[in-house]
Amino acid sequence: MKRQFILSSLLVLSLTACSLENVKDPKVQKLATEKNVPGLIAYASDKYPGFGEVQAVEALGEIGDKQAVEPLIGMLKRASSGSESSGEIDRRQAAATVLAKFKDERAFQPLVEATIDGSTEVSSAAKVSLKELVASHPKLVDQLLTKLGKDDKAAIAALGAIGQPALDPLIEALKHPESGVRLDATSALADIADPKAIPALVENLTDPFTAPMVGVALERVKYEPATDADRIHYWIANKKGEDLRQNWQMTKSVLLQDLETGDPGKIDYAVMSFIRIGEPNTIETLTQFLQEKGSKDIALAYLNCGQEQLSKAGEDWANAQGYEVVRTEVPQNQATQWGEL
Fold first, then answer.
1. Which residues contact 115 (CB under 8 A, 6 or more apart)?
2. Residue 6, SS3?
3. CB within 8 A of 126, min separation 6: which ones?
4. Dihedral (Cα; 257, 261, 265, 268), 10-degree rounding
5. CA-closest candidate to residue 26, choices 60, 51, 1, 61
6. Given this model, what pLDDT does residue 79 score?
7. Greatest CA separation found in the chain?
8. Which of 7, 79, 253, 263 has minimal CB crowding within 10 Å?
């Protein structure tokens, strides 16, 4: 008997990938066609948002009716106390994105606050929208500049996001007498990363308060030092201890020149830099400098730097000046430490 074989091909069932982002909510389409702004606001405000609610937010942005501004601000701010669902994040991101389209100043401060939102999607959208909004209202930058030096992280993030319109005022702020203002301006300039700020930033490389952030800002614009002094100051700002030690003669020469400038800020910078590098052959130089041109701040730096000979030099100077040295059990955590670079 002849055998019969039945060969069956393998059946494969496949589903074409379907993205909900490409699915149009019929209710949103109807409301948008009718330009029914109250209806879209009501739909977008659902307690448990999905892709339809997000589309409603986007439709409000396309229509551009300003009665939607306040509700959209409310949606942007509506962060859950606990973990947010992806739908909630998507809706807040959409709200941040479309608010710029209204060119309404009411959205400015909420967008500023959202630049440091816990959701990166929301914060990124807020930064883009801020830049668009300030393009329509350049004077809004002035409101943020008044926050420099006040530990307002949102304002600094916003200035960095705005970019070009904030550039010149921030460069000017690098000369401000208050160290907090200079530091905040430097932080914002690091975010903007515009080469135009390089000359002003280089001037602040020897500012003890802002030098580390100046180093960050210069690194982001791929700065290349033009002189030995600039190179050494840049290495110190970026904690390049190995480079400084390998080029010790250049390092020492530059810092000794800083000591002789007569500029109190540069002198403090040079002293602290010598301490941080921690080369033993500078101990005698530092001790002699304290004896000849010392100050209370330098003596305190020596006392707390962790180097025995400098600590003794600081104590001797203090006693000679009539100060009483009081040792405490609590360590000076903020003190510059010998050889920390």
1. 123, 126, 127, 130, 154, 157, 158, 161
2. coil
3. 76, 96, 111, 112, 114, 115, 117, 161
4. 50
5. 51
6. 67
7. 122
8. 7
Tokens 């904690």, residue located: 239
DSSP secondary structure letter of residue 142: H
For each successive 10 residues of the chain (341 residues), what is the average pLDDT?
Answer: 48 42 80 94 87 93 96 87 83 96 97 95 97 96 96 96 96 96 97 97 94 96 96 96 96 96 91 96 95 91 94 93 80 78 92
Q: How far is Cα 82 from Cα 85, in angstroms, rounded to an integer?
A: 10
Rounded to two decimals, the pTM is 0.83
pLDDT given at position 165? 94
| Structure tokens, 174 | 């690098």
Tokens, residue 97:
């994105």
Instruction: Please give the Cα distance from 51 to 295 (Å, whole number).
Output: 66
Per-residue DSSP letter, 330: S
Task: Give the DSSP per-residue string, 233-300.
Answer: HHHHHTT-HHHHHHTHHHHHHHHHHHHTS--HHHHHHHHHHHHHHT-GGGHHHHHHHHHHH--HHHHH
Identify residue 285 by its one-letter amino acid code.
T
Axis crossing angle, helix 69-77 with helix 51-63, rounded to the nearest 10? 140
> 28: which 2 tokens?
């949103």
Residue 310 corresponds to which tokens in the numbers above?
Answer: 């400098």
CA distances from 141 to 137, 156, 186 (A): 8, 11, 16
